[in-house]
Specification:
Elements lengths: L16 E2 L1 E2 L5 E11 L5 H18 L4 E10 L8 E7 L2 H14 L2 H7 L2 E15 L8 E10 L5 H17 L5 E7 L11 E7 L2 H13 L3 H9 L5 E3 L3 E11 L1
Antiparallel strand pairs: 1-2, 3-5, 3-6, 4-5, 4-11, 6-8, 7-9, 7-10, 7-11, 8-9
Length: 251
């Protein structure tokens, strides 16, 4: 499955329901397919096949797994895939068991997906929750940036700053969930990013109102620098914004 000039290769997106949700867990295993549509096919065609997959997965998956489809809204469209399929399981072993079953028993459904989308990347990764998304498991707006740790910065430093930032956003009632998505096997050989910085909101209106509210905090910029340091702990590229919708799976 092929996608234009891929800069987005990860297992990503909105929440996952496992009694609770993957975004309610501190960590979860993830996979993603980055895809473009076959000529003449589009989002509705993908959703039709996904509905068949949902019924199949609820009966055949050996472990919990929930999937979402991301569609770019604000992006440079020749740099991103037209559709990203993301799946979550609580552990890497469970995700592997689901993948084994899909490869051995998916059969006709795999062919149906291939008739709708061509995917140029399949990646493994992991999700770390910084601040839980309030409506995990539902559709949402996903803003993400590819980031790299600055020289000499440890993961412990980033985690400590992230927790301080999560506390700050909660104190000032800034909405949305905050996550770090790491990309593992399957990402491009020359990819220099360490993780994706992810912010999930309920709607574009909520996304915009959060920015408005942040700008109204007189000391907001200084507060952020105080948390992450004048030189920052990591460097990120320009953000992209996607719409994520749940497509089902297994509990």
């Amino acid at each position: 499955m092929l996608y234009r000039n891929i800069v987005f290769v990860l297992s990503c997106v909105v929440g996952l329901t496992l009694g609770q949700t993957a975004f309610a867990q501190e960590r979860a295993a993830m996979e993603s397919y980055a895809c473009n549509y076959v000529d003449g096919k589009g989002f509705d065609d993908l959703m039709a096949v996904a509905a068949k997959w949902d019924k199949w997965a609820s009966k055949n998956n050996p472990a919990p797994y929930r999937a979402y489809v991301l569609t770019p809204i604000f992006a440079t469209f020749d740099e991103v895939p037209e559709a990203v399929w993301i799946g979550f399981s609580p552990t890497s072993a469970q995700l592997g068991a689901v993948a084994d079953t899909w490869l051995s028993e998916g059969g006709d459904l795999i062919a149906e997906f291939d008739s709708v989308v061509k995917c140029g990347a399949h990646t493994l990764g992991g999700n770390r929750m910084v601040k839980a998304y309030e409506k995990a498991g539902e559709a949402g707006i996903v803003q993400l940036s590819a980031c790299s740790r600055n020289e000499g910065v440890s993961w412990a430093q980033i985690a400590k700053a992230d927790q301080a930032w999560a506390d700050y956003t909660a104190e000032h009632e800034l909405p949305g969930g905050i996550y770090r998505w790491g990309a593992g096997p399957g990402k491009p050989k020359d990819a220099k990013m360490d993780f994706y910085s992810v912010w999930i909101t309920e709607s574009l209106e909520q996304h915009g109102s959060a920015w408005d509210k942040f700008r109204e905090i007189e000391t907001a910029a200084q507060d952020m620098y105080a948390i992450y340091g004048d030189d920052n702990l990591y460097t990120c590229d320009n953000s992209r914004i996607y719409h994520g919708v749940p497509v089902g799976g297994s509990d």
